[in-house]
Design a protein that fits this description.
This protein has 354 residues and is α/β, with parallel strands linked by helices. It has 15 helices and eight strands. Helix 13 links the parallel strand 7 and strand 8.
Length: 354
């Protein structure tokens, strides 16, 4: 056993003796990452940062944390960048406003634009995953002076739709369960997840080939129950997620609750309703897109199809990379490959040589 392992074991034993759980003892940032609180746009956000140089801002999705970028922060810092990943509003140790509308796209993108200024910078390169990808796309359009380039992950962009996405989902699913429609019900999803944070997180943090037990809810109707029972319980952790990693996430959501992140989904209609001025507006900044080939969000789309979709709305689209065998959590599942792609991209847009 090496010295680091002995230190971690000692910390766990000490915590247990003090009446703490191993989860609480393990919930520490990776070496070299600095955690602090920054005020922006009327809220306080906890940020993790590492390195010096041009600012690269990492935006996580649901249900995640700054910790989702634990592999990317050291890689970008080593490449000569100031890598910063906030807990977005509603998550972790950041502020959690009560009003649902405080989580609309205008607040979320203003948080990021204000964070750039609060960090003493004029501009930043954006990296976003899942809901962070949605926020990133909109930040390019709503605050184009603040963001000079974008690496989007998992969620592509095809322009503002002609109709509200929620209305389309209601027509498509009717009385059947669909998680985004479930999230529209006041208080329902957060009550389920707050009661069993480990259950929902372990269900979601899987790879496409993770073995699972049979689901306990097989009736497709919403009336049959919530979400956790609809997907089989995983029989093992995926190789990219350690027990310590899962414990960190569980500890964060046990403290913060799930309501803030779910409120992002409750603003889908409001976001569409309040952005008619973005109809037909193109993204001018350089953009790349990264995703797992088996990510359910892209629905089996090929790189060619995704390139066609995003090239229509991006004036400087620089390509799609799909990672074979990878699922939704691509920056964790394929950390080394994603890091290389990000470093190459930010070097190209910032004028740095590899």
């Amino acid at each position: 056993m090496n010295k680091g392992s002995m230190s971690r074991r000692t910390a766990i034993v000490t915590a247990a003796a003090a009446g703490l759980t191993a989860t609480a003892a393990e919930a520490q940032p990776p070496k070299g990452v600095r955690l602090r609180t920054v005020r922006t746009n009327g809220v306080k956000l906890r940020v993790a940062e590492m390195g010096k140089g041009p600012l690269v801002l990492f935006v996580h999705g649901w249900p995640e944390s700054w910790y989702s970028w634990r592999h990317q922060l050291p890689a970008l810092a080593a490449a000569g960048y100031r890598a910063v990943a906030p807990d977005m509003r509603g998550y972790g140790s950041s502020d959690k406003p009560k009003a649902v509308e405080d989580y609309d796209i205008h607040h979320l993108t203003a948080d990021l634009a204000g964070l750039v200024t609060a960090l003493g910078e004029k501009t930043a390169i954006l990296v976003g995953h899942d809901w962070g990808s949605i926020v990133g796309w909109q930040a390019l359009l709503l605050h184009p002076d603040k963001f000079t380039a974008y690496a989007a992950m998992s969620v592509p962009y095809g322009g503002r739709g002609a109709a509200s996405p929620i209305e389309g989902m209601r027509r498509a699913y009717g009385d059947n369960f669909y998680y985004i429609l479930y999230f529209q019900e006041p208080g329902a999803a957060e009550a389920e997840f707050d009661a069993d944070p480990r259950g929902i997180l372990s269900m979601l943090y899987t790879s496409p080939d993770t073995p699972t037990e049979a689901p306990t809810i097989t009736d497709p109707k919403r009336s049959a129950g919530g979400w956790i029972g609809r997907r089989g319980k995983p029989k093992a952790l995926p190789p990219w997620l350690s027990q310590q990693d899962l414990d960190y996430y569980v500890n964060e959501f046990s403290r913060a609750g799930f309501r803030g992140g779910i409120n992002y989904y409750r603003n889908f209609h409001r976001n569409w309703e309040t952005t008619p001025h973005l109809t037909g507006v193109k993204v001018k900044q350089p953009v790349i897109f990264l995703a797992g080939e088996k990510d359910v969000v892209i629905g089996g789309a090929t790189a060619e199809r995704l390139t066609t979709q995003m090239s229509r709305v991006c004036e400087d689209f620089r390509g799609v990379t799909l990672y074979p065998g990878a699922g939704h959590w691509v920056q964790q599942e394929r950390a080394a490959e994603v890091n290389r792609a990000l470093v190459d991209f930010v070097n190209s847009v910032s004028g740095k040589k590899a």
